[in-house]
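thread: overnight batch results

M.L. [08:02]
morning all. the overnight job finished for the chain we discussed friday. pasting input first so we're all looking at the same thing
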Amino acid sequence: MWLKDKIRAFTLLECLVALLVISGSVLVYQGLSEILSSNVSHISKNDEEDWLLFCQQLRSELSGSSLDRITDNKLYVTKGTQSLAFGKSRSDDFRKTNADGRGYQPMLYHVVSAVIHQQNQMVTITITFESGLERTFVYAFEEKG
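M.L. [08:03]
and the structure it wrote out:
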């Protein structure tokens, strides 16, 4: 009679297999989470992609404009009837403003320094990022005729 009243239960081997499957799943999930986290931080801090976008934007802004002057490490240009200025702000961005400094539009963030040089109609902008990355932008304005 004692053998007929046996209760069905998990064996020790079945419990160990279940624990192994659960722990393996948790480890895989943790590893994928760490990889995803590192990829997101890399993408969000990628200065190289920001630089490429900045170059396209600045080239577009400067096309069709005429060089006025470079003063106090700022590039002053005239585009149509507007006088514009480009340069590093007091904070950590490189921005576009009116020549009088109003209406700013940040173009590039995490900038430590921006040095602007002029040689004839050629302008060179050297930018250093917080990450230590240094890039140079060169633009040749059309000769005034």
